[in-house]
Amino acid sequence: MASVQDTNAKQSIYDFTEARINGTEESLDKYKGKVLLIVNTASKCGFTPQFAGLEQLYKDYQDKDFEILGFPSNQFLHQDPGSNAEINEFCQMNYGVSFPMFAKIKVRGKEKNPLYDYLIENSNGKAIKWNFTKFLIGRDGEIIERFEPKDKPEDIAPKLAEILD
């Protein structure tokens, strides 16, 4: 479970520790110096096919210090009701997901994960509307841009190429 911390005291995303989908804790400090795309995901959503595009971005750019961090959430019409193990199996079997997946979290409301509190407060301040909202984070840990669910991974590719090349 993600640690409940005072979001105001956080200086960057690197100050957060999150549970991986297998239950192990991981400090986001591990990703310092990399470009990140943080995405809230769901396995039974109209946007679920974006997993294929996300995996392609990951394959295309992972050798340039790029990581995608997936955070499943079941808050939008219960579109990710499975356990962490079931979600992980679904992602690997159906989309070959090889990028890091984290434990299921809440991305809105009173029990919102502190990382998402931070991401929202430090982007446009608007609540997460749906699954597959994406946050592009620079090598310095700063949010470069927020992409809404309708923004497909392939639409983000030119921005990534610009940042990573």
TrEMBL record:
Pfam families: GSHPx (PF00255). PROSITE patterns: GLUTATHIONE_PEROXID_1, GLUTATHIONE_PEROXID_2, GLUTATHIONE_PEROXID_3, THIOREDOXIN_2. It catalyses: 2 glutathione + H2O2 = glutathione disulfide + 2 H2O. The keyword Ligase does not apply. It comes from the Bacteria. Gene3D superfamilies: Glutaredoxin. Residues 7-165 form the Thioredoxin domain. The active site is at C45. InterPro entries: Glutathione_peroxidase, GPX_AS, GPX_CS, Thioredoxin-like_sf, Thioredoxin_domain. GO terms for molecular function: glutathione peroxidase activity. GO terms for biological process: cellular response to oxidative stress. Keywords: Oxidoreductase, Peroxidase. Belongs to the glutathione peroxidase family. This is Glutathione peroxidase.
